[in-house]
Amino acid sequence: MRSERGMVSVEIAFGVLLSALVALGLCYLIAIVIQLGQLQALAGEVARQQARGDAAAAQRAEQDAPPGTRVRVGGSGADVVVDVELQSQPWGGVIPAVGLSARAVVAKEEG
């Protein structure tokens, strides 16, 4: 009969490696979700400022965006529509970029 001594060590090593990979994947997903939330907040802020007619505040809000973010402001009748896009790379160039986008629609304020 062959000795199976050391097999438990190999199994534990693979288990730890797999657990580490799963943890890294979850951290990456959390980073993506956080960036998506930031984009949605940016789109909402720019749309609100544009709906009020405050272009200077909208410009300041756009300057707080992550590098590489594209902000497009448009109109749809009585609404202001803001689309925000970003090729997200939360960990630099280690993992390929993920395209994120957010949209906000706010009614124009009268007065």
Give a short summary of the structure:
By secondary structure, the chain is an alpha+beta fold.
Characteristic key phrases:
single chain; 111 residues; alpha+beta; three-stranded antiparallel β-sheet; 3 strands; 50% helix; rod-shaped
What does this structure look like?
By secondary structure, the chain is of the alpha+beta class. 50% of the residues lie in helices and 24% in strands. It is built from two helices and three strands, in the order H-H-E-E-E. The chain has helices at residues 7-52, 55-63, and strands spanning 70-76, 79-88, 98-107. Strands 1-2-3 form a three-stranded antiparallel beta sheet, covered by helices on one side.
Shape: rod-shaped
What proportion of the residues is helical, as a percent range?
A: 40-55%
Low-confidence stretches: none
Rg over CA atoms, rounded to whole Å, is: 23 Å
Count of DSSP helices? 2
- Alpha-carbon distance between the two ends: 90 Å
**Beta fraction:** 15-25%
Q: What structural class results from the helix and strand content?
A: alpha+beta
Give the strand order, joined by hyphens, for the main sheet: 1-2-3
Let me know the average pLDDT.
89
What is the β-strand count? 3
Described by strand count, sense and barrel closure, the largest sheet is:
3 strands, antiparallel
Write the element-wise H/E pattern from the N-terminal end onward: HHEEE
